[in-house]
Amino acid sequence: MEGTLRYKVNRIIAENQFSRYFWRTVSDKIDGALGQLARNRLSRTSRTERRKVLFITFQGDYTCNPKYITQELLRRKLDLDIVWAGSKRSVQTPDAFPDGVRRVELYSYAMMRELATACVIVCNSVEFEKLRLPIRPDQTVIQTWHGSLGLKRFDRTHNDNWVWVKAADYCGKITRYCLSNSAFEDGVYRETFWPNAEILPYGHARNDLLLQTDSPRAREITERLRQDLHIATDTRVVLYAPTFRDSHNFSCYDIHPRPLLDALSARFGGKWVMLLRYHPSIREHSVGLMASPDIVDVSMYPDIQELMLLADAAVTDYSSWIYDYLLTGRPGFIYATDKDKYNDERGFYFTLESTPFPIAVNNAELGACVRAFDEELYRRRTEDFLHARGCIEDGHAAQRAADKILELMGEHA
User: Fold this and answer.
1) Angle between the 363-371 and 257-268 helix axes, to the nearest 10 degrees?
2) Are 212 and 330 a contacting pair, CB within 8 Å?
3) I want to staple 43 with a disulfide (CB 3.0 to 4.6 A). Which of 134, 287, 335, 358 is the partner?
4) How many domains are there within the chain?
5) Greatest CA separation found in the chain?
6) What gap in Å lies between CA 370 and CA 261, rounded to an integer?
């Protein structure tokens, strides 16, 4: 728009050959300051709508803990205004959200208006706090996070993304409640960005499904997935989902599917296929990175919990999802070619060797780990691992979270 401040400043930059970087920096800072003033005014002039709850995920998809809390609220058929802030792609996808959910685009002005008027705001990261929209006393922020019992540190010491750290600091100030599934996670909240938030020991709603693998709902999901992914009922599935690298190094994703599938067939029997799912932060750049007739690429599939439900075995490197997968009791393996370097880059809360999972640093070792898999040893180590971290998952976390949201709506009436 020709009348905007950014247009005018950018025109100055374009028409003059001096200090281009300086003027661009000034333009961004002016935009940021004006944006903050506008958001502050929006907060002051808005009124909280007691029956409105806003859900936000860093993935931009209908997924993770917010999804399963939403499902519980919808199941109760209450008079609620349930709003989701999603990515442009998910908001424009017709079936990405269920009936009964309004959608707005992430970071849009429409989202800011919903954020300024929601009674309860449920998030799984610190993404929306980058907006720094003030939260009034009659609004409540609930942090569910997107990992549990995870290996990777994410405190300010181990994160050089200062924008993210600044957002996380603000998140800690405005969050009233943090949902936790273990004594371990309580400690992570306390030592990172939420030292003063009240911790709710509810478990994680996204994991309820993994503790109900034989339920009609779980069977319906797996049958639908097999149909959508064209996987026969007699074919077994291994899920390979590595995490991202801060260095954007893709060379570590060099798993060889055929030897792995042969090893799985030799150890557990049957025909196997691999589901490949890259981290949401790199999935747009991973198309064709690993192409094989033995691979079904599910990187764009929004809900990894449902993929875990389908998987008969799992492989990752440092991603926290495999510590959710432990709850199924099914075999899990670590394939980490760069574990020493990654430990230096991100830092670990505990060693890979202290987890129940067999560890491989190359394809030959991974095949050997699969063929030598000891089910009884794995079961004992899983029980010890979960007990040592004070895990409290029992399959009813979504019910507790929904009860809390309704309680808060009554409190702010």
Assistant:
1) 10
2) no
3) 134
4) 3
5) 72
6) 10
Nearest to 55 by CA among 80, 28, 24: 80
CA dist 293 and 274 (Å) reads: 10
Phi, psi of 35 (to 5 degrees): -60, -40
Residue 409: half-sphere exposure toward Cβ, Cα within 13 Å: 22
- Are 128 and 222 part of one and the same domain? no
CA atoms within 13 A on the CB side of 134: 16
- H or E stretch including 176? strand 175-179
Which range marks the domain in which residue 341 is found?
Answer: 209-388
Contact 347, 192 (CB under 8 A): no
- Rounded Cα–Cα distance for residues 260 and 316 (Å): 13
- Encode the chain (413 residues) as per-residue pLDDT tens digits: 555 665 555 545 444 544 554 555 666 666 667 677 878 888 888 999 999 999 999 999 999 999 999 999 999 999 999 999 999 999 999 899 999 999 999 989 899 999 999 999 999 998 777 778 889 999 999 999 998 888 878 877 767 778 888 889 999 999 999 999 999 999 999 999 999 999 999 999 999 999 999 999 999 999 999 999 999 999 999 999 998 766 666 667 789 999 999 999 999 999 999 999 987 666 555 555 566 788 999 998 999 999 999 999 999 998 999 999 999 999 999 999 887 776 666 678 888 899 999 999 999 999 999 999 999 999 999 999 999 999 999 999 999 999 999 999 998 76
DSSP 390: T
In order of 238, 253, 265, the CA distances from 316 in angstroms are 11, 10, 19
Residue with tokens 């990172």: 192
Rounded-to-integer distance, Cα 376 and Cα 374, Å: 6
How far apart are alpha carbons 169 and 37 in whole angstroms? 20
Name the residue type at position 217. Answer: R
Six-digit token string for 294: 């033995």
Burial of 229 (0-12, 13-18, 19+ CB in 10 A): middle
Q: Does residue 230 share a domain with residue 184?
A: no
Same domain as 81, residue 29 = no
Q: In terms of Cα–Cα distance, which of 378, 397, 275, 265 is closest to 329?
A: 378
Q: Do residues 361 and 215 both lie within one domain? A: yes
